[in-house]
Amino acid sequence: MNKVLIIGCGGVGTVAAYKCAQYPEVFHEIVIASRRKEKCDEVAKAIGAPNITTDQVDADDVQQLVALLKKHQPQLVVNLALPYQDLTIMDACLECGVNYLDTANYEPRDEAH
């Protein structure tokens, strides 16, 4: 696998980025994206791997997500964003033909806890 895009930079996203960085022979390039780029930059710096880049995205906005996918052209998106953002991220991946991995169950925004 050449490039993975991790969406979400909370606790689980941070751990996922660390784990991907441990296997550069599998994950040649890692992109971490979240609504706060500075958080992604902090995580990338802490990991210290040369193959990590960061970006900003509003995961509620399908068109922003599509633009992000077209910009970075990952082979896999790992969705570690909020549960109510699952469908927008999935829609963007479907539109761009990118593989999608999710660890959460969808919850509507007004029901998410």
Indicate the topology.
Layout: E1 3-7, H1 11-21, E2 29-34, H2 37-47, E3 52-56, H3 62-72, E4 76-79, H4 86-96, E5 99-102
Parallel strand pairs: 1-2, 1-4, 2-3, 4-5
Low-confidence stretches: none
Instruction: Please give the largest β-sheet.
Output: 5 strands, parallel
CATH class: Alpha Beta
Please tell me how large the radius of gyration is. Answer: 13 Å
Please identify, by name, the CATH architecture: 3-Layer(aba) Sandwich
Terminal-residue CA separation:
34 Å
Q: Any idea of the CATH topology? A: Rossmann fold
Which of globular, elongated, flat, extended, rod-shaped describes the shape?
globular
Q: What is the structural class?
A: alpha/beta
Mean pLDDT: 94
Number of H- or I-type helical stretches: 4
Structure description:
With 113 residues, the protein is of the alpha/beta class. It has one domain: NAD(P)-binding Rossmann-like Domain (Rossmann fold), CATH 3.40.50.720. The protein is 39% helix and 21% strand. The protein has four helices and five strands; from the N terminus they run βαβαβαβαβ. α1 (11-21) links the parallel β1 (3-7) and β2. α3 (62-72) crosses α4.
In a nutshell, what does this entry contain?
The chain is 39% helix and 21% strand.
Task: Please give a handful of descriptors for the protein shown.
113 residues; alpha/beta; Rossmann fold; five-stranded parallel beta sheet; 4 helices; 21% strand; globular
